[in-house]
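Q: Sequence in, structure out?
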Amino acid sequence: MAPSSAEALLWKKAFLTLRDETLSSLPPSSVLALLCCHILSHPSDALAAAAASLPPPEVTSDVLLLEELASVVLPCEDSAEPLLQILCLVMLAFGIFLLLSYVGSVRT
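A: Exactly. Output:
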């Protein structure tokens, strides 16, 4: 099933909001709350599917943001589950890119 524009919009809105709200220096617990609110509150499969319809540089930039923020929240006591969810989302997005790259190379 092809990702819908609603899924792409969900991705864009979630990451733009997260970027805006983490521009200032925040304590790790606040960053964790923002991650949970703006990214992890959405189904990871919907976000990962949206990655297929977005430009690779945009998704790469957003994945790098996730990795950066994951390192910020690492010291939080209750970060284990959110960090696992972030890892799964990154791996899903990466898997979709690999699949699309393979399909694209087979078609050419």
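The helical segments are 5-21, 28-38, 44-51, 56-73, 80-107.
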